[in-house]
Design goal:
There is one protein chain. The chain is built from 19 helices and 18 strands. The strands form five sheets. The chain has a ten-stranded mixed sheet. A two-stranded antiparallel ribbon has the order 1-4. The radius of gyration is 24 Å and the shape is globular.
Length: about 550
């Protein structure tokens, strides 16, 4: 469906690069306008391998899903004869403004559908989608001319204000379909095309601090990890949980201290697979509450425990699972469309009902999507994994930093602040002798001070308007989390070491005193390291853990 109308080819620019520009320019334009071309047929029926370049279609150059979205360099095999390496960002930044692109024939593909297709595992086995995937469910109902109220009725049964259920997800889904007042045809279609959850928890490891790490198997056999972090209020002793979600199998960013980065990128997760992790987390919270792992201290545990709910997890689990962080396996901003679909389901009042300000998206710095996120999801929080205050050091710790230099990240953060009126949380893994010296302290302090000044100007210009749905009292400035390095096999190969308590506390104190940086040492990031669930330790079950396995 895509054909390029371009000026004469110049130099060694390849048709693959031009095709890349075409797709990305279309996606960018679609995202900026908030409109997308309508999908006329199911995306699964379209093979991206059929899309040809109008300049060299005789030679058979074709665009592939790998070429479209892979963050890794890709060999251009046609015009450059394998000599030129191009990436998505290099192509769009270098050529988007020089070319003119137009749709030819049937304008049948939407931006969302292209991205959905690219992150869906392809095999010969038809896979059912989780009904928790709100976008997929809504699309299905529209395609089959079904009333929205039927879908609302299903969600009201899945998310009741009752106690935790002891039924399996398969049994629960069958009961929901039986109990919901649905047309017989729709009931049959839902049973044929949807499940409640297709993920399988292979192993649970309980941390001494009360958290839990889940080893989860996907439908295609690949494995990810999801972590529950327990928080106990210092004064009321009430318990709340944060779920740390994975967005990819592996990761392409290659952070030197991170076990996930050592895996490389296997594939993106679908929105359905990400959302199901949150569903599993609610189940685990109910289980830990019933087992006595933590006491809510606020009477919540007595309100519904032990009551059987046909439709789903209880209001108890819903209230205890308060925060969501995208800090598990993968780079969420490299799986952008699936991230947005997930965010909508997580924050939807008929589903998980988690407030946007309790959802944090962590990125190593995919600069273009930081800017997009400010428009697409301004109510959520942003966290930047900085880890080094200079481009040279950052590129040595995070290879992907070569694609997104520190200067471009600074500009992206400033534009983000201009749009939403608040700064990002900055994460800084402290490695002894690597990024905790005097020079690093000065550069880090100056970097954050510059961002604070830009934020102050943005707020003055906004005058309290357009703060992403937050009032001025809720808008935050920049905050630095210093995270002592958690030992991993990847970090050990580089000789990384955990700093001493006194040295990292002194580093934080000097940042506060000399540069007015709001800083805190997150020793809590080491909680869960005994279960292999600490910061940087997730590796799909490959990372060793000392915590005991919880009986299933």
């Amino acid at each position: 469906p895509f054909r390029a109308s371009v000026p004469a080819m110049q130099g060694s620019r390849s048709c693959w690069a031009l095709l890349m520009t075409a797709v990305l320019a279309l996606l960018s334009a679609s995202a900026g306008s908030g409109e997308a071309f309508q999908l006329q047929q199911p995306m699964k029926a379209m093979r991206l391998g059929r899309v040809e370049c109008s300049r060299c279609k005789i030679g058979g150059t074709r665009i592939t899903e790998e070429l479209m979205l892979s963050p890794r360099p890709i060999l251009c095999a046609t015009s450059s004869r394998g000599e030129k390496r191009v990436t998505a960002m290099q192509t769009i930044m270098g050529a988007a403004n020089e070319q003119r692109w137009e749709l030819n024939g049937h304008a049948a593909v939407s931006r969302d559908s292209l991205l959905q297709f690219s992150s869906t595992p392809h095999n010969n086995t038809a896979q059912k989608t989780s009904i928790l995937d709100l976008a997929a469910a809504e699309s299905f109902f529209q395609q089959h001319d079904q009333k929205e109220e039927h879908l609302r009725r299903i969600y009201s049964l899945l998310f009741p204000h009752a106690g935790p259920s002891q039924l399996s997800d398969e049994e629960r889904w069958k009961l929901v379909l039986e109990d919901a007042v649905l047309p017989a045809k729709l009931r049959a279609l839902l049973a044929e095309n949807f499940v409640l959850s297709s993920l399988k928890v292979l192993e649970r490891r309980q941390s001494e601090q009360g958290g839990r790490k889940l080893l989860v198997e996907l439908e295609d056999g690949m494995r990810i990890e999801t972590v529950l972090i327990r928080h106990v209020h210092s004064s009321s002793a009430s318990t709340r949980y944060t779920v740390c979600l994975s967005s990819q199998v592996g990761c392409a960013m290659g952070c030197g201290f991170c076990a996930t980065g050592a895996m490389g990128l296997r594939r993106n997760l679908t929105a359905s697979e990400i959302i199901q992790q949150a569903w599993l987390a609610r189940d685990e919270v109910s289980d830990m509450t019933l087992r006595g792992v933590g006491d809510s201290g606020d009477g919540v545990g007595d309100s519904g425990a032990g009551k059987e709910a046909k439709g789903g997890r209880g209001g108890q689990a819903r209230s205890l699972l308060r925060n969501v962080v995208f800090m598990g396996m993968g780079e969420p901003l490299d799986n952008y469309h699936q991230l947005l679909s997930t965010l909508r389901a997580l924050t939807h009042q008929r589903l998980f009902g988690i407030a946007g300000r309790h959802v944090t998206i962590s990125t190593v710095g995919v600069a273009p999507n930081i800017i997009r996120l400010a428009s697409d999801s301004p109510s959520t929080r942003l966290a930047l994994s900085l880890h080094a205050p200079s481009q040279e050091l950052r590129a040595s710790v995070i290879p992907a930093a070569a694609r997104y230099p520190l200067s471009s990240l600074a500009a992206a953060l400033d534009l983000y602040a201009l749009k939403v009126g608040e700064g990002a949380m900055l994460e800084y893994v402290v490695m002894e002798g690597v990024n905790d010296g005097e020079g690093e302290l000065q550069l880090l302090g100056e970097f954050i001070m510059a961002r604070q000044e830009a934020l102050a100007l943005a707020r003055a210009g906004n005058s309290g308007r357009d703060l992403g749905g937050r009032g001025r009292d809720q808008a935050r400035g920049y905050f630095l989390n210093l995270i002592p390095y958690n030992p991993t096999s990847a970090g050990e190969r580089r000789g990384y070491r955990t700093p001493t308590y006194s040295s990292v506390e002194d580093f934080s104190r000097r940042l506060r005193e000399q540069y007015q940086v709001k800083s805190l040492v997150r020793w809590s990031s080491q909680e869960g390291s005994d279960s292999g669930g600490g910061c940087g330790q997730l590796a799909g079950g490959a990372q060793a853990a000392a915590a005991p396995v919880v009986p299933g």
